Amino acid sequence: MRNAFTSLLLIVSVLWAPIVWAGEPVNRKVPCPLGGKRIKVVETQGCSMGSSVAMSLRRLSSCDFVTRMPICDREAFPVYREFSKDEVKRLKGIVKTDWYQNARSQSRYLRAYLVERELATYSEEGMFWLLQNGHFYDSKNTFGNEVYFSEFRDAANAYLKQAEAQDKKLILLAAAFARVHTTDPRKALTMLDSARRIDTPEVPFFDQYLELVRACVENPNAKKCAPNTIIEIK
Q1: Spatial distance between the Cα atoms of 157 and 177, rounded to a whole number of angstroms
Q2: Number of helices and strands (H, E) in the chain?
Q3: SS3 content of the chain, % helix, strand, coil (to 5)
Q4: What is the structure's pLDDT at 36?
Q5: Which residues lie below 8 Å from residue 213, measured CB to CB, with a gap of 6+?
Q6: Which residues have C-beta within 8 Å of that of residue 169, sequence separation ≥ 6?
């Protein structure tokens, strides 16, 4: 069985990886699928992971300096993956839709999710992680955003239907922490109770994290409950 927590170790990814030593920053220009203008980004080939994690579940690494999902000048389009020629043709129509234009004021991760929902190449797991990455790397525009949480909740529920036990617990914990930062944080308790019933002795951090999130339900604005607060994995 795949260890669900390894997903946090694999979050760091680059679209065009140069041949360099792991952890070494490299400046590159990558093409925007709309208009062809090249975007300046910072990349690296690999990372080493630390023993600390943020309350958002973002694992700290040696390559936190890399560019996360660059944005095109044209239509504020998020470059979250490479696109085929046929997909680029579809993108030109997608960015003109009302729903895309309305999403321009939202997180780039939400725009990426909505675009990918139209293109339909990601699995339920991939769609979940697309939005969870927004929690990792764009916390100020994702946590506490009711529109974002609504889409995240749907993505989490879709992934829950097919996930294995460890993955289910991780999904529920991530969703509970996101719920804590909405207008009704007490609804996180139901998710935490469901997560508690899933036994994952091989990943003791899950139960440690569960109690940290539970402590945030009554006081979500506490410093210890901020998405970027760092906790030590016991």
Answers
A1: 15
A2: 10, 5
A3: 45, 10, 40
A4: 81
A5: 55, 173, 176, 177, 180, 188, 192
A6: 4, 195, 198, 200, 203, 206
Q: If we measure between CA atoms, which residue out of 109, 110, 129 comes closest to residue 57?
A: 129
Q: Which amino acid is at 112?
A: A
d(CA 88, CA 84): 6
Mean pLDDT, rounded, for 158-162: 97
Report yes or no: 38 and 73 within 8 Å, Cβ to Cβ: no
Bridge partners of 27, per DSSP, are: 42
Please provide the size of the chain in residues.
Answer: 234
- Tokens 């030590």 correspond to 232
Q: Which tens digits make up the pLDDT trace of 114-138?
A: 999 999 999 999 999 999 999 999 9
Q: What is the pLDDT of residues 182-193, one digit of tens each?
A: 999 999 999 999
Residue indicated by tokens 């260890």: 3
* Residue type for position 221: N
Domain ranges of the chain: 69-232
The reported pTM is 0.88
Largest CA distance in the chain: 51
Distance CA 139, CA 133 (A): 9
pLDDT value at residue 23: 67
Note whether 11 and 4 are within 8 A (CB). no
Residue ranges of alpha helices (H) inside the chain are: 6-9, 85-94, 98-103, 108-119, 124-137, 139-142, 146-160, 165-180, 188-196, 205-216
